[in-house]
Amino acid sequence: MATQTKYISLKTAIPGPKSQAVLSRLEKAAPRAVSVFAPVVIDRAHGSLLTDIDGNTFIDLTGGVGVLNVGHTNDRVKAALHEQVDRFLHTDFTVVPYESYVRLAERLNARFPGGGPATTVFFNSGAEAVENAVKIARAYTGRAGILSFERAFHGRTLMAMSLTSKVHPYKAKMGPFAPEVYRAPYPYPYRCEYGAGEEHHVCDERCYSAIEKALLLQVAPEDLAAVIVEPVQGEGGFVVPPPTFLPWLREFTQKHGILLIVDEVQTGFGRTGKFFATEHAGIQPDLLTMAKSIADGVPLSGVIGKPEIMNGPDDSQIGGTYVGNPLATAAGNAVLDVFESEDLLGMAVKQGEHLMSRLKAIQEKSPVIGEVRGLGAMVGVELVQDKKTKEPAGELTSRILHRMMDRGVLVLKAGIYGNVIRFLAPLTTPLDMLDEALDLLEATIMEEGGR
Fold it and tell me: Rg for the chain (alpha carbons), in Å?
């Protein structure tokens, strides 16, 4: 397909010879578990454009899996990192503290959903944040049990992997898992398991009843320390629950004296049009985990929560050598500077509206798009073999994404069947750049999925 492009520039076939050479070295240098989605080796990137070592420039709609909400090599973040590198790189905060950690914690505390006092502790990765949120919840409550949801993804360390629901590729052959982890259904409006053809509110109510039943069949409420939930499921398929779900869950946990941990690793920092997705529900969690776009690609994560809960662990029970390191906290403060000086939340809303409008127009013409769904700029397209049976189209989805890569657009999939195209473009992506990518996506879906 020959199409005029403004942003995409392809000089070679994909992958180019220089990328192929590096990837052949990778096969010998690292284990097979370190597999790559895009067979292109990056040279440089800025905003939403990525250029490989062969000189090919792509529109990047992956955002480093939701890490680059303020864009590749954001100018404010770059300046903060350069300034920090010249001052110092490491002390271990608990040995010799630095002001940037304190300032970032203060600024995030002020954004805690629901308002009121909060405190923040930093870690390196989303999985670490989840692991430590569980430790904090257990220390505060004196209980052991943790309830998570079907299709959940919370990371790949032991407790996080135990909470994760997707077996392949994350859990197969990786047991035994952490004990005292229980599972409940998560409402999935497109694939309601509680009565096909029922109105959504009926399906929702039956799902909530099933969650309550999980406590009767699996664990006593008084043995549960916390329920952990994604406000929009990420790896599980960009599943947007009904607006009643989080308020119901908040009431449910409070009734039983159970803490509510909201995992905002992927949804946080503006992705859904609010700084934290929890704000859409108008509730206050007890603990909230954050990572990914917190520092524009520098490893950083955190747990923010009510002070009395956060003070559950004793001195030195949580922490680590590199947690909240100076480079990361400098980057994190710069990211907040961007949010305070630019209307990124408004950009997320506009991006989401644009994506939904364009994708629903494609859906009307395509026999393979079962649903277009999203919250803000966190938008997913579920592909099916047949719109009536809703049979997942995983192989088709993979084929479309690889053809998109060949045409200069990087975009990822999600879902337990691998049949959801997910959009995680930087919130700063110009709409005409988004249109260039969507034009190619429309052509590719019609070619690959047209009948």
Answer: 22
Could you tell me if 236 and 166 are in contact, meaning their C-beta atoms sit under 8 angstroms apart? yes
CA dist 380 and 226 (Å) reads 29
CA–CA distance, 174 with 222 (Å, rounded to integer): 30
Segment 183-205 shows an average pLDDT of 77
Residues whose CB is less than 8 angstroms from the CB of residue 156 and which lie 6 or more positions away in sequence, other chains included? 127, 164, 170
CATH code given to domain 17-60+344-449: 3.90.1150.10
State the Cα–Cα distance between residues 272 and 265, nearest whole angstrom.
Answer: 12
In angstroms, rounded to a whole number, what is the distance separating the alpha carbons of residues 217 and 251? Answer: 20
| Domain at 77-341, CATH class | alpha beta
* Residue with more model confidence, 51 or 195: 51
Find the distance separating the first CA and the last CA of the chain, reported in whole Å. 18
In which band, very low, low, confident or very high, does the pLDDT at 5 lie, cut at 50, 70 and 90? confident
Strands 57-60, 409-410: pairing kind: parallel
The domains spanning 17-60+344-449 and 77-341 adopt the same CATH topology = no
* Main-chain dihedrals φ then ψ at residue 349, nearest 5 degrees: -65, -45
Strand pairing category for 224-229 and 259-263: parallel
What's the sign of the alpha-carbon dihedral 153, 155, 159, 161?
positive
Residues forming a β-bridge with 259: 226
Determine how many CB atoms are found less than 10 A away from the CB of residue 217: 8
Residue 112's pLDDT is 98
CB 292 within 8 A of CB 269: yes
pLDDT of 200 strictly over 70:
no
Domain boundaries, the chain: 17-60+344-449, 77-341
Q: Give dist(CA 130, CA 262) in Å, integer.
A: 10
Q: Are 238 and 380 in contact (CB under 8 A)?
A: yes
The answer for 273, left when phi > 0, alpha when psi is -120 to 50, beta otherwise, is left
**The tokens of 405 are what?**
């890569």
- pLDDT tens across 136-167, in order? 999 999 999 999 999 999 999 999 999 999 88
Task: Say how far apart CA 247 and CA 254 lie, in whole Å.
Answer: 11
Tokens of 212: 């309550």
What's the pLDDT score for residue 198? Answer: 52
411-432 tens-digit pLDDT: 999 999 999 999 999 999 999 9
